[in-house]
Design goal:
244 residues; alpha+beta; Deoxyribonuclease I, Chain A; 32% strand; disordered C terminus
């Protein structure tokens, strides 16, 4: 079983408006995932350094960041980052730009988990529906650029899509299934499923949900979402639910 999660960590600023990276780490440890896609993982101004100090992540968590060739001290690319459970083999990893009026990007890594090579994409899409559609198309086109067979793929992030079936959800849904995680925003009173986990159809979603704990309700304005996955043929039931 492969466990993944997505978390808009809001630069480690909680609903109490305090920046407490140790609280974010506590939530990450609660998730116990193999791979986590983070959004808003870097500070917004100045050097845009990681909102979680690297030494704190190393000392107090079971995760390490996928190296992204970006500015020194930053854990991600336009706030997007991938964390992996320590000891996992990371192969290809890179960043790519997304079309937008303001800087947007996505990160990709190929990771071996229990002998299975998988591809992961982390993203944080635009507030504008028009730009979200263009960004979804850019991500999907990027995934299909490489020749040969494509590994099982997981796309995760804050899509900023308030629609339950339309917009960029329809674009991603042509070739991917949605884990029915549930509503993750706002953390204090979740009313929208802005955060999504999507999988290629050679993966089965065995279980999924929103991570609700006392700490996660305070650590960010988004709750983390998670899913347990299994390659098709090894057990589990697939789903094509929109996750509303």
């Amino acid at each position: 079983m492969i466990r993944v999660a997505s978390y808009n960590m809001r630069k480690a600023i909680g609903t109490d408006r305090r920046r407490r990276p140790e609280r974010t780490i506590e939530v990450l440890n609660e998730l116990g995932a193999d791979v986590v896609a983070l959004q808003e993982a870097d500070r917004r101004f100045g050097s845009r350094a990681s909102a979680i100090p690297f030494e704190m992540l190393e000392a107090h968590s079971d995760y390490e960041p996928v190296e992204i060739d970006n500015r020194p001290g930053s854990v991600g690319w336009h706030g997007n980052a991938l964390l992996v459970r320590k000891g996992l083999e990371v192969r290809e990893h890179h960043l790519f730009h997304l079309p937008s009026l303001e800087p947007r990007g996505a990160v990709l890594a190929e990771i071996v988990i229990d002998g299975v090579l998988m591809r992961f994409v982390g993203m944080h899409l635009d507030l504008s529906g028009l730009w979200r559609r263009q960004q979804a198309q850019a991500i999907l086109s990027h995934l299909h650029e490489h020749d040969g067979s494509e590994p099982p793929t997981v796309l995760m992030g804050d899509l900023n899509e308030w629609s339950t079936h339309g917009g960029c959800l329809r674009d991603f849904g042509r070739d991917h299934d949605f884990a029915p995680c549930g509503r993750s925003f706002h953390a204090r009173r979740p009313i929208a499923a802005l955060d999504r986990i999507m999988v290629s159809r050679d993966l089965a979603v065995v279980a999924s949900g929103v991570h609700r704990t006392a700490c996660s309700r305070r650590a960010s304005d988004h709750l983390p979402i998670w899913a347990e996955l299994s390659p098709i043929g090894t057990g589990g039931l697939g789903t094509r639910d929109w996750g509303t």
